[in-house]
Amino acid sequence: MRGGNGHGGRVVTVGNAGVVTEGGTTRIIAEVDGREVYFESRDLALAAPPEAFATALLPAVAQRRWRLRMTQPLDPKWLAGAQEILEIWAGWWQTPAALDDLLEASHAAPPEAPPAGRVGLCFSGGLDAFHTLLCSGREIDYLVFAHGYDIPIGDERRFAAAEASVRSVAAEVGARAVVVRTNLRRRRPFKGAGWGRTHGGALAALGHVCSSELGEILISSAYTRGSGNDWGTSWDTDPGWSSSRLNVTHFGESSTRDDKMRALVQNPLVRDHIRVCWENKAETGNCGECEKCVRTMTYVELLGEDVSQWPFGGSGTLVERLDGVPFVHPQQVSSYEPMIEICEDPAVTAALRRLAERAYDPFEDRARRVREREAGDAE
Fold first, then answer.
1. Is residue 109 part of a domain?
2. What's the rounded Cα separation, in Å, for the pair 329 and 325?
């Protein structure tokens, strides 16, 4: 496969991935434009397939209209799936639809050995992941948690609290916790490309680096099939990150957030360990102030549970918390409709409506500004 059908732009070269084991930690490393990108774990001997880095980086390259040059050959099944993903993204975001325009790589021969047999779940303690863990009916062997995605590398205090929670949940359900640390989000082309559109590849990459043990990685749905929400992880794109050694499975697209909340709101494991906050406004745990925290807290209370027993910080009445949220992402507006329907408090209903009207997409705004800046640099 050779790139270059008229799409110029920067070329990002990914060197051969290597594996270093030291002091019980396995680190896989590749040079990306001359800078080290790594994934490491003390819980599992990681693998270093080139598909891991291609999966992690292709979404960012597509958003920037750059090109990715892989020095190692890529699995034919992965290449076919990536082409399908690009065609979907082109309809959503007007990014290049042809893989040849974004990727330079040769084809590898499919592996002779069969895939590993265990199943992993990308798990950070959110509602969607808990729904997959407890309602999918799948036997899940590993809960895979990334340090460096929602919680930045270097933020050891928040990481320690989140890690303890993930390990506790894993022990409770008879699974094994696997923590993978990575600097992916600190490196271009990923840095600044917009997490909302690029995180699906980042999650699937966790499965590829764990493919020494995993034959399947589950990614939990954020939206229902047919919702019209274009997102970095989706029921129609996630499976395209599969290779001959790893199946990437999307779960939960038939369940609304209302369905998930009703199924899980009385589960003590969810009540004690849910972690939905990604803005990291509090020193540890859920801040109780960001949009995602307040949305979850509101749902808990509207479903008749005592939200004070849940792990949320902050203070103030529900109306004060709702009015304190500066905006809601347009893709989340639909989440407020079921709450408005069941809410019997006029003041809370009014606050919910006010918040739903404060729709704003920071990811699109940031991506637009990046494209404008790069277009100016190219002139």
1. no
2. 11
Nearest to 232 by CA among 220, 242, 243, 244: 220
How many degrees, rounded to 5, is the angle at CA 174 between CA 170 and CA 175?
Answer: 55
Taking only the tens place, the pLDDT of each residue in 274-323 is 999 887 777 778 999 999 999 999 999 999 999 999 999 988 999 999 99
Give yes or no: residues 32 and 75 share one domain: yes
Calpha distance 123→219 (Å, rounded): 8
Give the span between the Cα atoms of 238 and 298, in whole angstroms: 30
| Element housing 32 (H / E) | strand 25-32
The model carries a pTM of: 0.89
Q: Please indicate, yes or no, whether residues 242 and 122 belong to a single structural domain of this protein.
A: yes
* Token digits of residue 45: 């001997």
- The CATH number of whichever domain residue 230 belongs to comes to 3.40.50
Residue 299 falls inside a structural domain: yes
Phi/psi of residue 194, nearest 5 degrees? 100, 100
How many helical (H) and strand (E) elements, i.e. helices and strands, does the chain have? 12, 11
pLDDT along the chain (379 residues), means of 10: 53 92 94 94 95 97 95 96 97 94 89 81 96 96 96 92 96 98 94 90 98 96 83 94 96 93 96 89 84 94 93 92 92 87 95 91 65 60
What is the C-alpha to C-alpha distance for residues 219 and 296, in angstroms, rounded to an integer?
20
Tell me, yes or no, whether 128 and 64 share the same domain.
Answer: no
Residues 92 and 129 in one domain: no
Number of domains in the chain: 3
List, in sequence order, the alpha helices (H) in the chain: 50-64, 76-93, 127-135, 156-173, 195-209, 257-264, 268-273, 291-302, 318-324, 333-342, 346-357, 362-378
Q: Is 154 exposed, middle or buried (0-12, 13-18, 19+ CB in 10 A)?
A: exposed
Residues 129 and 224 in one domain: yes
Q: Are strands 247-251 and 11-14 parallel, antiparallel or unpaired?
A: unpaired
Q: Which helix (H) or strand (E) holds 177?
A: strand 176-182
Which of 251, 268, 289 terminates a domain? The answer is 251
Domain membership of residue 25 as a residue range: 11-104
Contact 58, 204 (CB under 8 A): no
Query: Are 127 and 99 part of one and the same domain?
Result: no
- Which of 229, 251, 273 marks a domain boundary? 251
